[in-house]
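Hi R.,

Here's the chain you asked about this morning:
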Amino acid sequence: MRQDDDKLRRLLQEATCIAVVGASDDEDKAAHDVPAYLQERGYRIIPVNPGSSEILGEPAFDDLSEVDQSVDVVEVFRPAEEAPALARKAAALGASVLWLQEGIVSEEAQRIAEEAGLEVVMDECMMKNHRRLVASGSSS
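And the predicted structure, written out as tokens:
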């Protein structure tokens, strides 16, 4: 389910603030490594995890609906069953992109998000795509 490289590159270049639902303070998890990588590359990370008060030096929100800041991308590290509800919350938040991390696919979430005007990326890793399309300077 390879996404269009031009679309992915554009989304990664236009985004400045990413709400990471399921962000983790466990350094052995992708839900920690990916947002840490993105933060190191200059993105503002807003962690969303009810089990943590702070992740990556940023205050963590219990729920996406509680985020009180402008967000470009909602990146999801939660099971696909939760994605439709998160798509609704991403739309309510005013995000422009719903990004379901590698291994997460939800046609229902895609439909909900696209009907609300969001662009959708599914089953793709933000870090891998950033390395491949932005950090490498690739223009292919």
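The chain has one domain: 5-135.

Let me know if you need anything else.
M.
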